[in-house]
Amino acid sequence: MIVRIMGEGQVKLADSHLVELNELDDVLLKEMETGDGPGFRATLHALLDKVRELGTPLPDDSLEPSELILPAPDATIADVRAMLSDDGLIPS
Fold first, then answer.
1. What is the C-alpha separation between 70 and 87, in angstroms, rounded?
2. Buried-most residue among 3, 32, 45, 66 (CB within 10 A)?
């Protein structure tokens, strides 16, 4: 799966990592619902760090179709809310 982090680029990530990423996505959604700004920020960074850790960066000049688009590290709760699907950021 090709994942784009907005403002950073793309990484190739094995589908097997989706379960782990979904756990962070679930926490992120709860923090958004409760308006926990500091928790949201920490979890968003943890999610993006996990994608960077588990994924393999694609070359900057590569333009593969992204199957998953994640917000930039400085995204606000409102920014992320606008990107959500029924499953959150990470599809189940």
1. 13
2. 3
Q: What is residue 9's three-state secondary structure?
A: strand
Q: In DSSP terms, which residues pair with 9 in a beta bridge?
A: 5
Q: Which distant-in-sequence residues (6+ apart) come within 8 Å of 78 by Cβ?
A: none
Q: Per DSSP, what are the bridge partners of residue 57?
A: 11
Residue pLDDT, tens place only, 8-43: 999 999 999 999 999 999 999 999 999 999 999 999
CA distance 62 to 8: 12
Q: What is the pLDDT of residues 44-88, one digit of tens each?
A: 999 999 999 999 999 988 888 999 999 999 999 999 988 876 667
Residues 6+ apart with CB under 8 A from 85: 91
